[in-house]
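The material for today's practical consists of a large collection of protein records. There is nothing in a record beyond a sequence line and a structure line. Backbone structure tokens are a discrete shorthand for how the chain folds in space. Nothing more is needed to start thinking about how sequence determines fold. As an example, a complete record with its sequence and its structure tokens follows.
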Amino acid sequence: MTKASATSDQDLIEAIAKLLNEQNLAEIEIEREDMRVRVTRSYANTAVQHVQVPAYAPAPATAPAPAVSAAAAAAAAAPVEDLASNPGTLTSPMVGTAYLSPEPGKPTFVSVGSKVSEGQTVLIIEAMKTMNQIPAHRSGTITRILVDDSNPIEYGQPLAVIE
């Protein structure tokens, strides 16, 4: 093999690899007269995205129970089916598995009675091996948590009520 031939072969392989990446292909194979080139992409194991959770000081154990508004009391008593029309209901943006805490054995993100700010993580939904933080869509108090930890959920399913 000559030096010019080796360079053109290297250029061909680089061009194939570039095409593989640009077209998001897993494998491509080209065969010429006396040469056959096969380029494959290997995917590394997908790592689970770890979620950074801001530390919140727990409420003192002797703190008085928060007053519940009439709207919050009505939302707490409403059947799950009626909650979809409630503006305080946080619904699932995807299908997946709901997790109430950042890791097994760790405290939950929120509980009934927790005060949350808009954008604060309420729970995580795992979808396609990716952990997706589900933020509060409004500030308020969690009056109901409508899903259990590690259970499958559907798109649009009510997750929690924030009043």
